[in-house]
Specification:
Layout: H1 2-15, H2 17-27, H3 33-65, H4 69-89, H5 92-95, H6 100-108, H7 113-122, H8 125-137, H9 141-163, H10 165-207
Helix pairs in contact: 1-9, 2-9, 2-10, 3-7, 3-8, 3-9, 4-8, 4-10
Subcellular location: Cell membrane
Family: Belongs to the UPF0056 (MarC) family.
Pfam family, one: MarC
């Protein structure tokens, strides 16, 4: 249960589905309720597939390119810190690489569940690197199953939040969403810093 909660909390912070609500509403503003719910469902499914693939085969991709897990943790920590700082400073869209041109193009397409919603808004490099590192940190099959279940739980939470986007937007308002994004941004920033520190400690220990 502890591993599930730790993985779920870390993923939820990095994925930040609440911070995606305003963008989701903007991209689906002309859709019916059924179309919006379908987009929310497939966005969650796409995030689950992307993260599960990253978790299961990411380590082998690293080995193929000769990248060590500690270097990945540092790179992932920097990406996570950048995302967290973007949330804190209010430049979430820019930090996640969603330009105005991409947004306008997405509004013209019938299916936005893959991009920009799944990639790069939620299942970005930060979440991927987090899971790749966890794959090596928890070698037991039982632990991997728990982490996979946490990924599924995060995907379900994405679906429920995006499906309730209109209600959440009315309930919290623009200022409420911004406030929650700031809190989540601080947590994401802390996670990134912790990843970098842990990796540096391991590297220095090895070189002693």
């Amino acid at each position: 249960m502890d591993l599930f909660l730790i993985t779920f909390a870390a993923l939820f912070s990095v994925l930040n589905p609440i911070g995606t609500v305003p963008i989701f509403l903007g991209l689906t503003q002309d859709d019916t309720k059924e179309m919006r719910n379908r987009t929310a469902f497939w966005a969650a499914v796409n995030v689950f597939i992307i993260l599960l693939i990253s978790f299961l085969i990411g380590e082998y991709v690293l080995k193929f390119f000769g990248i060590s897990i500690d270097v990945l943790r540092i790179a992932g920590g920097i990406v996570i810190c950048t995302s967290g700082f973007g949330l804190l400073s209010g430049s979430f869209g820019k930090k996640r690489g969603v330009s105005k041109k991409v947004t306008n193009d997405a509004q013209k397409r019938s299916d936005i569940a893959v991009t920009p919603l799944a990639i790069p808004l939620m299942a970005g490099p930060g979440a991927m690197s987090l899971l790749i590192a966890m794959y090596q940190d928890y070698p037991e099959i039982a632990d991997k199953s728990i982490i996979a279940t946490a990924i599924l739980g995060a995907a379900i939470s994405i679906y429920l939040i995006l499906k309730s986007a209109n209600y959440i937007s009315r309930l919290l308002g623009a200022s409420g969403i911004v406030a929650i994004s700031r809190i989540i941004g601080f947590l994401v920033l802390a996670i990134g810093v912790q990843y970098i520190i842990n990796s540096l400690l391991v590297i220095f220990r090895i070189n002693e």
